Amino acid sequence: MRSLNYLGILSLLLGVPTHSLKAHDFKTCSQSGFCRRGRALSARAKEAGEAWSSPYSLDPSSISIASNQAIFIAGVKSALYPEINFGLELRVHDDGVVRVRMDEVRGLRKRYDEAASWALISEPTISSDIKWTAGKKDIRAAYGPKKENEVVVTFAPLTVALLRNGKEQVVLNGQGLLHMEHFRTKTQEVTHTEEAAPQEGAEAVSDDAQAVITPTNPRAWFEGDKEDDYWEETFSSWTDSKPKGPESLSLDINFPNHPVVYGIPQHATRLALPTTTGESPFFSDPYRLYNADVFEYLASSPMSIYGSIPVLHAHSADSTVGIFHAVASETWIDVGHSAEKSTETHWISESGILDLFLMPGPTPEDIFKQYSRLTGTTVLPAHWSLGYHQCRWNYVSSDDVRTVQKRFDEEDMPVDVFWLDIEYSEEHKYFIWDKKNFPDPVDMINDVATLGRKMVVIVDPHLKRTSDYPVYQAASEKGLLVKTKSETEYEGWCWSGSSAWVDFFNPNVWDWWKSLFKTQQISTWSWTESTNAVHIWNDMNEPSVFNGPEITMPKDNIHHGGWEHRDVHNINGMLFSNLTSQAVAERSEELTRPFVLTRAFYAGSQRFGAMWTGDNLGTWEHMAVGVKIVLSVNIGGMSFSGSDVGGFFGNPEPEMLVRWYQVGAMAPFFRAHAHIDTKRREPFLLEQPYKGMVKDILRLRYSMLPIWYTAFRETSVTGLPVLRPHYVMFPKDKAGFDIDDQYYIASSGLLVKPVTEKDATEAKVYLPEDQVYYDYFNHHAYRGAANGKEITVPAALHQIPLFIRGGSIVSTRERPRRSSTSMKADPFTLRVALSRTGTARGELYLDDGETYAHRAGHFVWREFVAETPKKKSRTLRIASRDMGVARPGEAVDGVVLKAFNPANAYAQSIADVRVEKVVVVGLNSKPKTVKVEGGADLNWEFTLGVAAADKKEGTASILTIKDPRVSVVKDWAIIVEW
Ligand code: NOJ
Predict the structure, then answer these.
(1) 833 within 8 A of 921, measured Cβ to Cβ
(2) For residues 259 and 317, what is the distance between their CA atoms, to the nearest angstrom?
(3) Does pTM surpass 0.85?
(4) How do 534-538 and 596-598 pair as beta strands?
(5) Where is the protein localized (predicted)?
C-alpha cells in the first residue's frame, strides 16, 4: 500500500499543499462575527460599569402560571426593540432542576428549538410542589424537602436566580449580558449611530467599534454601532451567507461563591478550567464548542476539538451547582473570576433558543444524578469492549489481521478486538470490502471470532459520490443527503474523494441506515459480508470535510426540516452514532449489545457508546493532557472514554509506549492506535524488558475486568462517572480542587496516578483523608491525613502508582487468558483492604456481558462486607451477600427492575464459579482460626506487617486464604478469629 501521511493524503485529495493544519485553520473569537459581538457587548458593559443595565425586562401583567403552578410563562421585552416579543418559561422538575427557556415569539422566523429533544431521554416530570408568589419586583417559588431551594425571577432588568438557603447559587443576566438577537429583514446596512447623534466627549469602547457610549443612543450603547457581520461572514476563502441574519444569543451565568468550574468538554486543558477573562487570563480566547477535526491539536488550548458537551459544574467546599445549556450551534464560553470566590461565565451561541437547565446539586454526586435524569446514563457496555483493543491505520489485509492475532497468542498477550480502519474498504466506500486485500472477509472475521474475539470496522458518514456505490446511490435517490443552501446535494471532500453526507436528522434515513447493517439480505443492499462479531467505529462525524470552512460543513447547508447546519452542528455527530448503535443492536434476531466508538459527541452521546480523544500526538504533553480530557468528558457524562495508546502521530520510544499502555489500561476505553505513516508498534514487537512490561499491563487490565465492569454497572445506574477526580470524591477538600492527574475508579476504592513524564522513577500522590492506602501490587501501607498529604511513591518504568483505599474490597480474576471471553468461568480473588477502623466493603456485578438479559434481572450483584460483629471483638467476619433489587428509582440503562430473583438463570449458570482466594490486608496480628461459617478450618497463611490501625507505613500484614470453596453467587461468611 502507498505510504502516505495524513497531510500527504489530504494534499493528494485536494490538490493543494496542506502544510500545517493547525490553529489558523480555525476561527478565533475575533474572527467569528457573533463571538466578536458577544465579547464586545461584555467589553462595553465592563466599560460602563455601574451605569450598565440590561434592556431586557419581564412584563408582570403577562405572567401566567400553567399546569397547576408548575410552569411559569411570561412575556419579555428589550427596551431597545419594543416591537419584538420574547417569551420566558420556567419549569421546576421533580428533582429540583429548573429549566429556563426563552425564545422569540411571533418573530419573522423560528429559532432552532430541538437540541433538547435529541439530548434528553424524555420529557422531565414537573414538580407538583411549586407555588409561585408574585411581588412588585419579582416572582419566586421555594421548593425542595425543606423549601431550601428558591428560584427568583426579577422583572426589571430581567434576572433569574437559583438560591439555596437564601444564598445565590446561579444567577442569569446578573451582569446584563443577555441578548437574543431578533430576526429582522435585511435592509441596507444600518449603523446605530445614525439613530442618535454622538454626545460630545463620550468615550470609545473598543478598537473595532467606534461606538459612542451614551444612553441617548441606546442601541449603540448596548449593541455597538454597526451591523458587524450580520448578513455574511468571510473566513479564509469561505463565505458564510447568513440568510437568516443575526440570531445569536448571549447570556452571562454567574456562580456566586463558587470559585472553580469544571466541564464543557472537549478541550485540551486542565480539568479546573483556567480563566479566559480578567486582568491576566490564562487563555485569551473563550472556550469554544464547535465539533471540529483539528489536525495536530494543541495540548493546551481553549479551541474546539471533536466533541461538545455544554455542561458546567461550579464548585466550592460547601456547594456544587451545575448547568446544561441545550444549544447545538457554535458556542463560546468565557470564564473569569470576579471576587475571589465567585466564577463568572459568559455564553455566546450563534443560534438557537435559550434552553438552560439549572442543576441545584448541592453535591457533585447530586449533579451527576440530576444530569443523567435529563440525558441518560452511560449504557452498560458489552463486557468484551472493556478488554484491550488493537487498532492501527491500517491492518492491510485479512492475512495481516490473522498474523497479528497469531502473534498476540504466541506471546500470551490478551486482546479482545482487532480493528480495521478505512483501508479495508474499496476506494473508501464503507461496507464494501477491498477484495484485493480482504478477499475473504467473513472467514477472517470468523477466524477472529472463533478465538472469542471481535472486530471493529470503520464506517464514516461521508459517502463516495459514484454510481458504483449502492449506498450512495440509494441515499441520493431517496433524497437522504445533506443539501446546500440552494437545496442541491452537498458535495465536499473527505477520504473517499468527492463525497456526500447522510442527513441523520431525516427520519426517512433511520430505517434505511439500519437496513444497511443487516447481515441477511433484507433490502436492495445489506452488509451480508459481515457477522455479529463486527462492531462499528464512527469517525469523521464532526463532520470532517477536508475542503470545507474550518474543515467542516458550510453553516448554510440545509438539513431535514429546513434547519441550517449552523443550528445543528454540535448534535450532528451524535445522531450518527445513535443510529449506528441502533443498527448494530438490531441487525439480527439475536439481540446483543452494540459497540460503537464515536469521535464527535454531544450531551446524550453516552447512551450510544464510547468516545476517544482523537488524533493525539506521540508526546509526553499529549499523554498528560489526554488524562485530563478523559476526566472532563467523564464530568460531561461520557464515561466510556480513552485516548489512542501510543499517540496517533509519531513513533514513541519504548519508554513512552510503556507509559502510554499504563495510561490506557487505567482508562475506561483501552485502545492502541497509530497513524498510517508510523512504524508498526504492536506490543509483541517490543524488545525486552519493555515487551514484558506491556504484557504485564495487559494482564493487569484483564485481571481488573470485574472492577471495570462493576464500575460501568454503577455508572449505568447512577450516572456517576467511572473516573472520579478529587472534587467529586472529596468535595470539601479545597486542596483537591485543582488535582487532575490522579483519580478514583468509580466507587471501587482504587486510586490511580498515571505517570506521564519521561525518566520518572517516583511519583507524588495526594492522599486526601486520614486513611490508609495500600499499594495495589505490594500492599505497602501509606497514610493520608485529614487535611491532605502528599506522599512520594516508587514509579520506575514497570510500576503504576495504583492504590487500594483502606475500607475497600476489590474482586479480580487473576488467571492470564487470551481474551475476556475465556475468563467467564474463571474464579475470583477478593482483596479485603481493611480501613483504619478494621472494616471493608465492595461490590461485584456480573452478567452474561453481551445480551440484554440483565434488563430482565439476569445478573449477579454481590456485596462483600468485612466487619467485626458487635460483642465479638476478636472476630473479623467477611460476608458475601446479595445486593438484591436495584434501589428504588434506580434503573439499568433506563429500565427499572420490578423484581429480582437471585437464583436467575444467569446466576445458576455460574453457580460453580468460586472465590479461589481471599487476601486480607492490614490485620493486627496472626489469627487463630479462619473458617467458612459453619465449616472446617481453611488453608491460610499469614505474614506480619503493618496493621491498618497503625500509624506506621510499610508492608501491611497479609492473610491469604486459599480456596475457601465458596461460590461467587451464594451468601457465605468467612470467620477470622483470634
Ligand atoms: C481520523 C481518525 O481520528 C483516526 O483515528 C483515523 O485513523 C483516521 N481518521 C483514518 O480513518
Answers:
(1) yes
(2) 9
(3) yes
(4) parallel
(5) Endoplasmic reticulum
Rounded distance, CA 774 to CA 349, Å?
A: 48
Q: Which among 336, 338, 322, 342 is positioned nearest to 256, based on CA atoms?
A: 342
Ligand 1, residues 305, 648, 676: which to mutate, most atoms within 8 A of Cβ?
648
Q: Is the dihedral of CA 683, 684, 686, 690 positive or negative?
A: positive
Task: Report how far ligand 1's centroid is from the alpha carbon of 660 (Å).
Answer: 19
Strand order across the beta sheet in which 802-805 lies: 723-724, 743-745, 750-752, 802-805, 772-775, 780-783, 954-955
Q: Summarize pLDDT for 254-304 with one digit per residue, the tens.
A: 999 999 999 999 999 999 999 999 989 999 999 999 999 998 899 999 999
Name the amino acid, one letter, at 822.
Answer: S
Question: Most distant CA pair in the chain: distance in Å?
Answer: 99
Interatomic CA distance for residues 706 and 708, integer angstroms: 6
Ligand 1 contact, 155 CB (< 6 A): no
> What mean pLDDT is reported for the chain?
93
Give the C-alpha separation, 269 to 793, whole Å. Answer: 26
Give the residue numbers annotated as catalytic, written as ranges. Answer: 539, 542, 615
Give the C-alpha separation, 748 to 759, whole Å: 30
Q: How many CB atoms lie within 10 A of CB 761?
A: 11
Cα 687-692-697 angle, rounded to 5 deg: 125
What are the counts of helices (DSSP H) followed by strands (DSSP E) for the chain? 16, 51
Closest to 170 measured CA to CA, from 306, 399, 325, 293: 325
Length of the chain: 978
Q: For residue 16, how many C-alpha atoms fall within 13 Å in the half-sphere facing its CB?
A: 8
- For residue 667, what pLDDT is reported? 98
Virtual torsion, Cα 168, 169, 172, 175, nearest 10 deg: 60
Examine the pLDDT at 341 and tell me if it is beyond 70: yes
Check if 285 has its Cβ closer than 6 Å to any atom of ligand 1. Answer: no
Cα 451 to ligand 1 centre (Å): 27
Please give the torsion angle defined by the CA atoms of residues 29, 31, 34 and 35, in that order, rounded to the nearest 10 degrees. Answer: 10
Mind listing the domains of the chain with CATH numbers?
383-703 (3.20.20.80), 725-805 (2.60.40.1180), 806-978 (2.60.40.1180)
How many angstroms does the Cα of residue 290 sit away from the middle of ligand 1? 19
Q: How does strand 670-672 pair with strand 641-642?
A: unpaired
Q: What are phi and psi of 486, to 5 degrees?
A: -95, 15
How deeply is 59 buried, as exposed, middle or buried, from its count of CB atoms within 10 A (0-12, 13-18, 19+)? middle
| DSSP codes, 464-511 | E--TT-HHHHHHHHTT-B-B-TTSSBP-EEETTEEEEEB-TTSHHHHH
Q: How many CB atoms lie within 10 A of CB 641?
A: 30
The model's pLDDT over 857-872, given as tens digits with 9 standing for 90+, comes to 899 999 999 999 988 8
Would you say the CB of residue 649 lies under 6 angstroms from ligand 1?
A: no
Give CA–CA dist 326/347, Å, rounded: 12
> Do 644 and 616 form a contact (C-beta atoms < 8 A)?
yes
Confidence label for 893 from pLDDT (cuts 50, 70 and 90): low
**Number of Cα atoms under 13 Å in the Cβ half of residue 790:** 7
- What kind and span of H or E run contains 967? strand 958-967
Q: Which residues are within 8 A (CB) of 237 and not within 5 positions of it... i.e. 6 or more apart?
A: none
- C-alpha closest to that of 354 among 180, 604, 506, 478: 180
Question: Residue 115: helix, strand or coil by DSSP?
Answer: helix
Q: Whole-angstrom Cα distance, residue 428 to residue 465?
A: 11
Write out the DSSP string of 884-924: -SPPTT--BTTBPPS---TT-HHHHHTTTPEEEEEEEE--S
Selection from 379, 341, 348 nearest residue 259 by Cα: 341
Q: What average pLDDT does the segment 79-86 reach? A: 96
